[in-house]
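User: Need the bound-state model for zinc ion:
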Amino acid sequence: MTPLDILRRYYGYTEFRPMQAEIIRHVTAGHDALVLMPTGGGKSVCYQIPALLRPGTAIVVSPLISLMKDQVEALRANGISAEAMNSANDEGLNAHIRTACEQGEVKLLYISPERLLSELTWLQHCVQVSMIAIDEAHCISQWGHDFRPEYTQLGGLHATFPNVPIVALTATADKLTRQDIVDQLRLLQPRLFVGSFDRPNLSLTVSKMGQKTDKLRVIRQLIARHGDDSGIIYCLAKKTCESVAEELRRMGFRADSYHAGLSAAERTRVQDDFLNDRLQVVCATIAFGMGIDKSNVRFVIHYNLPKSIENYYQEIGRAGRDGLPAETLLFYSFADVITLRNFAYDSGQQTLNLEKLSRMQEYAESQVCRRRILLNYFGQATDQPCHNCDVCHHPPQQFDGTLLIQKALSAMARTQQQVGIRMLISILRGAFSPEITEKGYHTLPTFGVGRDVPHRDWNDYLLQMLQMGYIEIAYDEHNHLRITPLGEDVLYGRRKAALVVPQKEEAAAPRKRTSKAQKEEAKAPYTPTTTDELLLKTLKQLRLDIAQEKRVPAFVIMSDRTLQDMVERKPTTRSAFAEVYGIGEHKCELYYEIFTTAITSFLQNQH
Ligand code: ADP
Ligand code: ZN
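Assistant: Bound-state model below.
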């Protein structure tokens, strides 16, 4: 069989994505490789198909048990024999797996790095090892963002298994980490494959909002717009996670939180509930990371600014892995910039982390297509607008902001630059508070000069002023704002300055329907209207029933994309069913009857 035959027969896909075929050919021929592709880019088939083509058992090193479990279940659902060996197994199961491997019945053996070391002698002497894949290979490097000491011991694999090709795979792209992976794994003349980092199905939106009530209002609309689709909300602190989840539950959504403060058992429960669609939204700190290999995540929201573009891209990458449209939304606020600056200062790698943070801020402030910024960051220069980000949808409009900027700077000067952002906005808007009267700020000539500008817009303008270098934050002095020399030029009329009109809230997320319908939706639970939406709902329920019976997550049975294609094609025969996206021979055999019957009776009931 050729690689393409395997892709069609086992996976039910019609063609390879760019690079996949080349990587598969290279590894199957017995050579080492380093593969860089974004999350959701399709790395798995790059080692799974060589594993099927080469005689023996492939070892796949993977850092997380939950990740292994998903991969093994997904492979089995396609009729490929795979096993996972890790600390979750009892000895009886391990003994069974060992025998199966020795008899050549296992094509892929997933194993944790620490387990691999204790099984080395057995593998070396009793198993025909066909190849080795190191997933999440950046875990081996201290330069990466997820260093795991267990990975450093993988450097001896080539010595133990001579003539066995090693393929290292990661979504982390920076050059330092790349070279470190090659060095530490002692790869032999590895070929480097860099896949496209573009994920065109992810929409990108940034919203400059800091207030909890504003953010929650937007989140509520966004979730409502998605019916019962799943999503993740990333928060910086565990307290935020919990309170956001609480608010969402109050709004009637099935939401929960996931963070390092929970017990291992609670975390497993939340993860399982999410994977099995019992939970719709998980509010998580970054700890809810790599274990989530769910193909039907339809939205990812960053409640707080991420600390680097790498983190951001990996997190939004968890949306839309099935290639269908998915929505991402990032909230950007002053408070987050300050918190993250402080983290970076205390991190031990100050310069590096501050630099990463400022690149993240540049992205959030961007006035050109956001995808261009991301792709350029990952070394994939492009000059085409994407038409799927907020900047492309609503190109920023500039105006002469000199007067507004002067008002803000003058208010700062009048307080001897002794105020932070909150207080400054209060002064500009003429808001009385005990602190203001105590300090006598209400008697300043600038008190209330910016009353006509809403709080949110001031926040936006001040962020722009920060980004353009008219003001800076004195992190070591209570985060008070300071006027820079460039700012002084504007304040004293030596220089004019442009500002960008703040986004309107409706622009904060792409909308498919009219705003009236939207408002209704935000209140009422989502009910499908058209025939196709009804059919999709029926098929999803069918998938869920099967998944529950088999005790696996629903997306292992079939991806959302497969169901959507099924809705489009409405197959009522076996051969038509085999044509559906993601339906290989194994799934066709297992499911054609139950699904074609359901579709047939659905269609009859329509008439
Ligand atoms: P990652 O690079 O994050 O490991 P995966 O290997 O999980 O990504 O792939 C993401 C999704 O894309 C999976 O659902 C996978 O089945 C699908 N996929 C991979 N290759 C193809 C292909 N050639 N055609 C269609 N879908 C594919
Ligand atoms: Zn764009």
